[in-house]
């Protein structure tokens, strides 16, 4: 599950973060494998500006589910800071910490605006390749006595590369890293990116074969009609998200203007148990993804928990198709 810690109807930060903890605990009870947090800055309706802090809190309030960043936006931070934070977290919660790395800044408007507020250089994104290499070196076992030191160095901190393009997929493959594709950001490039990742994959220090995750908006309910009704309330949020219009009034989804964006929601799965089952099965077969990252913006807590329950239930017997089935171009 990927969590945005959204505020609804004038909620404060405390209420939004409390719901995040509840969602993580519910996901753990249902058998979800990972609970990740996004990083966004200067976005009025989101409270996830400091993922490592929330991650540490959620890890302390759960027992087994893996928690991680989806992702830590590397242009916003120094490689040493991220290595120190996640190395420390890995020492506190052994075998439960994931580190997803992103190239974006996670803010509205231009990257330059966010970088300026974070007191980062305007060309921070241009240094991504070098900064990623430095971060990976900081997390691995030191090769010499004078290697830079970071707490938790050499511990198990799986590093994922996040992306929404063939370029990021190719980089993940060449570095031998697991790859997570943001279908909710760029649905049109999903299949080419998955193909590029597997084509360019080279076994690395921690992975001998490719491992890919894709995101999907899923709203599940007891009936198709009920799920579609919930989607009607969620759609305005998604419309604003894709258009990157983030006014302060956007905390109330119902008050936001509605517009049809079928191309951006082409991978949304909305419906009752059988509809959701067939949708997930089709997406897994089409992409040959190893994992699916669930995203939802259901405001009602009971309805959200029921949606997570249905998804967990139908995934128990998903037919992935033939293991060597090629990725379908769509």
TrEMBL record:
SUPFAM superfamilies cross-referenced by the UniProt entry: Bacterial luciferase-like
Q: Which organism is it from?
A: Bradyrhizobium diversitatis
Highest classification ranks of the organism: Bacteria, Pseudomonadati, Pseudomonadota, Alphaproteobacteria, Hyphomicrobiales
> What's the name of the protein?
LLM class flavin-dependent oxidoreductase
What family classification does the UniProt entry report for this protein?
To bacterial alkanal monooxygenase alpha and beta chains.
Matches recorded under InterPro entries: Bact_Lucif_Oxidored, CmoO-like, Luciferase-like_dom, Luciferase-like_sf
Which residue ranges run through the membrane? none
- Which Pfam families does its entry note? Bac_luciferase
Domain (Luciferase-like) ranges: 12-286
């Amino acid at each position: 599950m990927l969590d945005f810690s959204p505020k609804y109807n004038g909620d404060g930060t405390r209420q939004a973060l409390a719901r995040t903890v509840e969602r993580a605990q519910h996901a753990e009870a249902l058998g979800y494998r990972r609970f990740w947090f996004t990083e966004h800055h200067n976005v009025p309706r989101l409270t996830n500006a400091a993922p490592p802090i929330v991650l540490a809190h959620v890890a302390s309030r759960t027992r087994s589910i893996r928690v991680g960043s989806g992702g830590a936006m590397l242009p916003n931070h120094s490689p040493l800071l991220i290595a120190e934070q996640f190395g420390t977290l890995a020492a506190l919660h052994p075998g439960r910490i994931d580190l997803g790395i992103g190239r974006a800044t996670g803010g509205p408007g231009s990257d330059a605006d966010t970088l300026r507020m974070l007191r980062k250089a305007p060309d921070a994104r241009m240094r991504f390749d070098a900064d990623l290499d430095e971060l990976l070196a900081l997390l691995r076992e030191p090769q010499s006595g004078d290697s830079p030191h970071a707490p938790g160095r050499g511990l198990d901190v799986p590093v994922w590369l996040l992306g929404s393009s063939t370029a990021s997929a190719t980089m993940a493959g060449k570095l031998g890293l697991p790859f997570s594709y943001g279908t909710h950001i760029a649905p049109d490039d999903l299949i080419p990116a998955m193909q590029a990742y597997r084509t360019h994959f080279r076994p690395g220090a921690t992975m001998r074969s490719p491992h890919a995750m894709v995101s999907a908006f899923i709203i599940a309910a007891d009936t198709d009609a009920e799920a579609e009704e919930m989607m009607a309330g969620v759609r305005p949020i998604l419309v604003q998200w894709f258009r990157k219009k983030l006014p302060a009034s956007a905390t109330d989804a119902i008050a936001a203007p509605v517009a049809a964006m079928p191309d951006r929601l082409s991978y949304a799965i909305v419906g009752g148990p059988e509809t959701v089952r067939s949708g997930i099965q089709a997406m897994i077969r089409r992409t040959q993804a190893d994992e699916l990252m669930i995203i939802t913006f259901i405001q009602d807590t009971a309805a959200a928990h029921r949606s997570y329950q249905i998804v967990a239930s139908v995934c128990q017997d998903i037919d992935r198709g033939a293991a060597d089935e090629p990725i379908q171009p769509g």
